[in-house]
Amino acid sequence: MIQSKIKWVSLVSVLVIGLSSATAFALPAAATSHNTNSTVAHGQPTAVNAHATNGQANGQAHSSNGKAIACQKRQNAVKTIIGRLDTRIANQLSLFTAVAGRVENFYSKSNNKVANYNQLLANLSTTSSVVRTEYTTLQASSTFSCSTSHPKAIVDSFLGDLKATLSDLKAYKTAVQNLIVAVAKANNVSLTTKNS
Hints:
The protein is an all-alpha fold.
């Protein structure tokens, strides 16, 4: 009888120890932390672990500060890149316009006429107008600053406007090339291209 009681007590103590250790492993990390303010009832935490909450807030603030510092370090480089792209597009636009003007002057002095010259000029005028409008939009979105609430949104907006401007600039270049080819062909002028 005493042996059965000892076995029974041993079995109960093994079950209690086994259940308590299983419960400890099943609890969320906040309930099993070293913080003494945390209490557990039925396997669930009843108080918020203040240390973990403060840690999260500190981590988010540190991450935000880190992003701000990284943005400040890159701000001058981003502004330089945006400035170069702006200058490059302005130079190309000016070049294409000058070439188109020279071709029009040459055509007005020549005796040979192009059948679809007015259509080519209308296409040139339309593409020029579109690229100038898009370029104005690009210039408006090129003011980058880390002090704004969403500097990445400014860059994304600029990149979208840049893509549209480059596409329109390519269409303008094609319109100028079509005019050159038509006028040259009508006047028996051979076109040669330089290979770099």
